[in-house]
Amino acid sequence: MMEKTVKRGIRTGFTTGACAAAAARAAVEGLVRGEVPAQMESLLPNGQRVRFDVHDGRCDATQAHAMVVKFAGDDPDCTDGAHLTADVLRLPGAAGRFVLQGGPGVGTVTLPGLGLDVGGPAINPVPRRNIEDNVREAGAALLAHDGLAVTISVPQGVEMARKTLNARLGILGGISILGTTGIVKPYSTAAYRASVVQGVEVAATTGAGTVVLTTGGRTEKFAFAELPGLPEACFVQMGDFLRYALDTAVAVGLQRVVIGGMVGKLTKIAQGETITHANRAEVDTALLAEIAAGVGAPAEECAAIAAAETARFAAERMQALGLLETFHAALARKVVQTVTARYPGRFRLDVLVCDFDGKKIAEASSHAE
């Protein structure tokens, strides 16, 4: 069993966008020099220059191929180890023209709301600019008289995409090329956070006026069953990123937010945490003891809850006392109170609570019955 004192990793990694840009730059360098380099210094979106190892380099007078393996540092996600591959083709006589295309393993956008063209590749705006900046810088001599067409592909992308929320967002057939700075910081889970923001934006395009935020697969399945009339795109697994989800909901004008969760995450939200990762904050068991006291739990039980390490302990004690539903309803009301105090009048908030088997226990709403 890991000790609580185990230190987090500190190695930074690089985004899919940064790796794609480095591969594109290396391929262009091959067209310019006649040989694809084994290493390539590439410009990141944040202005830094970083050296990447380049694999599978080959070129002739008209086209070039290069690949960079994504290293995610100590914040690995499902795209760690992905082969970001660039194929660059000269466009004779099309001076200054730059064309960016998605190849196999890069998703295709099929729904509006992502800030990308429907039918186009899922390459986000910052990586698009970064790829173009590197291509134009490395290929300036070629671009004086020819154009350059760049195709980014990810051989393992279809399989990797199954572990992401892409299909929910309407991104089909592969992964997204993401990144705002080019660097992945340890435990930032930047790619997941970006997908949460995109998910809320897509929910806003459905016309339902509602986003349903859940903390994982079990709570989402529960929420689906409770709200069967809503389009699938309204459901967003926010994970630990409540603040980003709610800020986006406000920005896109959603009128109703539903939060579905279990006792642990809901307690963190009730205590005012908007990033609910286990490493960011402890569960406030004193708050749970206070809620338990408010629904009539004996003082000795409340003391035991306050001294416990987990929220689950409180739930189990409340069940033993026959106060499970009452306790969770009070917790849900506390969540409503805390969130609406932070976002006054911005949206209707409904909170749905399920047990560890995904069965409904309680609910609360900012709209009185």
Report a brief summary of the structure.
With 369 residues, this protein is of the alpha/beta class. 37% of the residues lie in helices and 22% in strands.
Tag the structure with descriptive keywords.
single chain, 369 residues, alpha/beta, CbiD-like, five-stranded mixed β-sheet, 18 strands, disordered N terminus
The total tally of domains equals 2
The N- and C-terminal alpha carbons lie at a distance of 47 Å
Describe the strand arrangement of the main beta sheet, using strand numbers.
4-5-6-10-7
Task: Kindly estimate the percentage of residues that lie in beta strands according to DSSP.
Answer: 15-25%
Classify the helix fraction into a percent range: 25-40%
Shape: elongated
Secondary structure tally: strands: 18
What would the average pLDDT be, to the nearest integer? 89
* Class by SSE composition: alpha/beta
* Oligomeric assembly: single chain
Instruction: Report on the biggest sheet.
Output: 5 strands, mixed
What's the helix count?
13
Q: Which residues sit in consecutive blocks of at least 5 with pLDDT less than 50?
A: 1-9
- Tell me the Rg in angstroms: 24 Å
Please explain how this structure is put together:
The chain has about 375 residues and is an alpha/beta fold. The chain folds into 2 domains: about 15-185, 2-Layer Sandwich (CbiD-like); about 190-365, no CATH class. It has helices at about 15-35, 125-140, 140-145, 155-160, 165-170, 190-205, 215-225, 240-250, 265-270, 285-295, 300-305, 310-320, 325-340, and strands spanning about 15, 40-45, 50-55, 55-60, 65-70, 85-90, 100, 105, 110, 145-155, 170, 175, 185, 210-215, 235, 255-260, 350-355, 360-365. Strand 2 (about 40-45) and strand 3 (about 50-55) form a beta hairpin. Helix 1 (about 15-35) runs parallel beside helix 2, helix 6 (about 190-205) runs parallel beside helix 8 and helix 9 (about 265-270) packs across helix 13. The radius of gyration is 24 Å and the shape is elongated. The two termini are about 45 Å apart. About 45% of the residues are buried.
